[in-house]
Write a structure and sequence with these properties.
136 residues, alpha+beta, SH3 type barrels, 3 helices
C-alpha cells in the first residue's frame, strides 16, 4: 500500500534519546509532495512541542486541547525546527513502524499553523521558500 503525505496529515516521530524510545513529537505535513532540486520529492513539515512553564517557546502559534486528538495540553509549533523532508523517508518510516500516521488537522488549525510559518522569525528561510514554491 502506498503512503502519500499530504497537507494537514500528522505523523508521530521518535524524538527522545535511546534511553526514552517512547518519546515522540507530532509533526504536521505543510505541503503537497514537491520536487526539490537537491533532495528529490519532499514536503515541508514542522513539529509541535509541549509548553513548559518558565521555559522559552515561540509564541507564533499555540495549539490547545481539542485542536488535535494527540494534543493533551498547551503546545507550541516549533518553527525553528521546520524542515524540508524527503517523501520516500517518510514512506519508509511509516511502513517500518518507526513513524506513525495520525489524524489530519482541521483546516482551521492548519491555517493557523501555516500562517505562523510565514510570520515566525524562527522559520528557516529555505523552509519558507519551499513552502511558498510548493503552495503555488
Amino acid at each position: 500500500m502506498m503512503f502519500i503525505p499530504l497537507p494537514r496529515l500528522t505523523v508521530l516521530v521518535p524524538s527522545g534519546p535511546v534511553s526514552d524510545p517512547d518519546r515522540k513529537h507530532l509533526y504536521v505535513v505543510l505541503t503537497n509532495p514537491t520536487v526539490h532540486p537537491k533532495e528529490g520529492t519532499c514536503v515541508a513539515w514542522v513539529s509541535m512541542r509541549s509548553v513548559v512553564p518558565n521555559l522559552w517557546y515561540d509564541q507564533s502559534c499555540i495549539l490547545n486541547i481539542g485542536d488535535h486528538p494527540f494534543i493533551k495540553h498547551p503546545t507550541w509549533v516549533d518553527y525553528g525546527r521546520a524542515g524540508v523532508f524527503p517523501v520516500d523517508k517518510i514512506e519508509r518510516g511509516i511502513h517500518s513502524g518507526i513513524l506513525a500516521q495520525k489524524d489530519p488537522l482541521s483546516e482551521m488549525v492548519f491555517r493557523r499553523i501555516t500562517g505562523g510559518l510565514c510570520s515566525s522569525s524562527f522559520t528557516p528561510e529555505k523552509v519558507k521558500d519551499f513552502y511558498l514554491f510548493a503552495s503555488l
